[in-house]
């Protein structure tokens, strides 16, 4: 989870607000005190924290608010707006243009994650259809070129560098010129790490910049940099005048506040955050959803965009099956495939209001390994078995042994899959048919499809507040949440994967699925050990 500790404390401060019936100065002060101390302990600049506190107090004048206004909502909105201000300098970052050369130069401290982020970014743009490449101008650190070469090869991104040339200015110029001639659209130049005391290295960075004339210079900051972020980022700003920031290592236990403060100190926007060592662990940064997720309020709009961008299997056959109250083993296999495509469950959970913290409190365990194992079991079944309702295995239990052998798993795991399938089939029976849940859900308005509707729904969900400890909106229980999320994402609408059943599956995997059902097969308890 991104900035887990800060998120936990901010979420808890906000839930004190949503859980209280009386909103007065005393409560506001207590909430603000907790928010400010969480920010300070995360290394957010003390002046910025002071300004935030003052600004909220000024804007929320509880005594002068007329009777009948929703004080809770006003306080909540003001706090959220002020937190957004911390990470949003209201400056537009450069946007690469298709069909044109876009040179992007990376600068930053040693070990901040530049080389890794360069490849991540090249891959990100490559996935967006840009012709991307990398130039290694880090001649300072032995092994830097090898690292970039290795990353680039893995990601299939063309690269340029030299083992013998020691002049980074010359290398970067040669590399950029070569790739420009070859009509590359994104040319990313990695430079060596340096500290503000290193005057010569700073001068060299400026020379590289003059040689390659980047359209965008990005400073990379490690989330654990702490208070040093202010002086370092100021020094880099003065010499390289970078136009964007990438904060790396947001996945760890880093406090992150120092790096966040660099935004205000340099008036420069964060464009991406690094959330892991793997090449795809780079997220586009957007202030409002970031704060919303940090406060445990989720990011429904982001989740919908994420789901849509994945081009998940439409599963029209499954929806038809569900409508008729049935569910085949193949349907389960397809749904599991969609779950895998969604990425780490922790990421998905953090986009649903209240789920991020809950997921963490359950150990933040990623189930993708287990899901892959279950898929491999179903991939070892025959077509007939996949398209069945699972009863064929009862008729011939020796088939379970064959499937277990074929998938390199155990009979117990095959039984688990079949038991999971039986449970889904049972749900499908309840959902399908004229009087089923699906028909009722569709009758009450179907599913809002566009992002605007999702955003408004999220606002409604958040504004309801919660009486429970964690801000599960409107006092909803997990079952309501999952149903709602599923409904929002097209459950039963016919042209999206059936997310409602996927959410139900999540619930069952976590051991407390729809309706708080317990005793269903709990995959987290069965770590796929062979027998
Ligand atoms: N957990 C995590 N690790 C990261 C992330 N980004 C980079 N790293 C790791 O941080 C370490 C340093 O990253 P590099 O990319 O080598 O850093 P650099 O800035 O190029 O280093 P210099 O060339 O010495 O300046 C490596 O072990 C990376 O795998 C991230 O977002 N999350």
TrEMBL record:
Biased composition (Polar residues): 449-466
Assembly behavior: Fungal signal recognition particle consists of a 7S RNA molecule (scR1) and at least six protein subunits: srp72, srp68, srp54, sec65, srp21 and srp14.
Superkingdom of origin organism: Eukaryota
Subcellular localization, as worded in the UniProt entry: Cytoplasm; Endoplasmic reticulum
NCBIfam families in alphabetical order: SRP54_euk
Region Disordered: start-end pairs: 446-475, 505-531
Protein function: Signal-recognition-particle (SRP) assembly has a crucial role in targeting secretory proteins to the rough endoplasmic reticulum (ER) membrane. SRP is required for the cotranslational protein translocation for ER import and preferentially recognizes strongly hydrophobic signal sequences. It is involved in targeting the nascent chain-ribosome (RNC) complex to the ER and is proposed to participate in the arrest of nascent chain elongation during membrane targeting. SRP54 binds to the signal sequence of presecretory protein when they emerge from the ribosomes.
Biased composition (Gly residues): 509-518
Protein's recorded name: Signal recognition particle 54 kDa protein
InterPro entries: AAA+_ATPase, P-loop_NTPase, Signal_recog_part_SRP54_M_sf, Signal_recog_particl_SRP54_hlx, Signal_recog_particle_SRP54_M, SRP54, SRP54_euk, SRP54_GTPase_dom
Reactions the enzyme catalyzes: GTP + H2O = GDP + phosphate + H(+)
